[in-house]
Amino acid sequence: MSSISLETQYRDQVVLASFPPSVGQSFTLPNEYGAWKDLTRHLALQEPGILVSAGAERSFFDVALSAREVCQGLIVRDIHPHIKAYVDFNTALFRIAKDRQDYLQLVDDIYCDPEQLRERIRADLAIPVAMREYYSANLDYFAEVFFEWPRLLEDHQMNWRKSELFYAVAYHKNDEQFSKIQKLARAGNIIATLGDINDLRCFDGSRITLVDTSNIHDSCQIHLQTAHLPRVMWTKLILHQRTQFSSYRTEYNSFQLELPLTEEEMNELEIAVRQTWLRHYGNSVSIEKGPLKPRDVKNAIGVKERANVLSPDSPRHAPPPGSFSRHNLMKLKTLPAQTHYEVKGNTVLKERARVSAPSSHHLSQSEAAEAPPAPRLGCCGRFIRIIQNILPKIPK
Length: 396
Prior knowledge:
Number of domains: 2
Largest sheet: 6 strands, mixed
Strand content: 5-15%
Oligomer: single chain
C-alpha cells in the first residue's frame, strides 16, 4: 500500500467546505442482523487492499471482522451527508481516544459537550492541521448526527451497542477489534466521501479489493466503474422468525468482478447456453431469439449461485459479470451430457433450478410430441386445473 494516507491522497473529497442539505432517510444504524460468520467468510475472500463500503456503522463492522493484514484502509462511499458526518465523527473519536475505555466514555455520554471534544481535537498534534480544522468546524453538526439515534433509543433494544445480537461486531467491547480500527483511523486511512458507490474512478490511485454495496441493489443497479477488479459484496434481508430486534435475517453474498468477456468468449457462451437448453430441455422450453440475456445463462446453468443469478435487466440486480462471466462459461462447458428431469405441473425441475415450461396448448404439433408427458394430477391438482380453466372465461 502507498505510504500516503487516504485522507491525504483524497483530501479534496474528505475535507468539505460545507455539507449539502440532507434528503431522504440516512442509515446510520446498522440494518444487518446476525449472520456474522457468513459475513466473515466473505470478508476472508478479500485480497490485501482497500475496502470500500456504504453505510455508517456497518462499514466499521467490516473492518472489525477483517484480517488486520488484509484490510489496509476503509473508504466509506455514500450519497447521504449524514453518513459522512457520522463516520467522520466516529473516526475523530477513535483518533483522540486514549484507549477503548476512553472511547466508551466518549460514545456513551449522549449529552457530551462538543466544546470539550473540540479542545481535545485541537490539542492532538498527531492529527494533521487540515483535519483538526475540519473536525473543529463541523463538530456540532457531526455530534448532532452521531448522537441522534442513541438519544432516541437509549433504553431500546435497537440500540446496537447494547444489543446481544451484535456481539460479534461490538468493537467498543473488544480490544483487538478496537485497536485494529483505531490504528487505521490514526493513520488517516479511514475516510468518508459523498458520492455514488458505482463511481469509484476517483479512487483509481488506491488498490481497491473489496466493495461492500449493502442492499443498494434494492433501489438501483450496481454497475461499478473502477480500474480495479474487486470482490463485490451485497446483502439481502430475508423475512425470518420475529425477534425482539427484527423480523429479518441478513444474507451475505459476493462475487469476484471480472474483465468483460471478449467477443469470442461471448459467442462461446451463447452457443453453450443454447446447446445446453436443447440438450437438457429439448424443444419443450426455448429461449427468446435475439441478444443473450443474463437470465438465459442462469436458467441454462440451472443452479442458483447467489450473485451469479443476478442480471442487469432490472434495478434490483448486480453487474453483468455476475452472469456473463468466465466462471459460468466454464460451468456450462463442464455440465454433464445427460440430465434427468421430472415435470411437476407446468414447471421443469432440474437439480435446484426452476425453468418455466409452456403449456402443451401453446405448442405446435411437433413440439407437443417432443414435450415431456404431462403429470398425473391428484385431487388438489385437478381442482386447481379446473379453476385455471374457468378464470379466463369469466367476463371482465
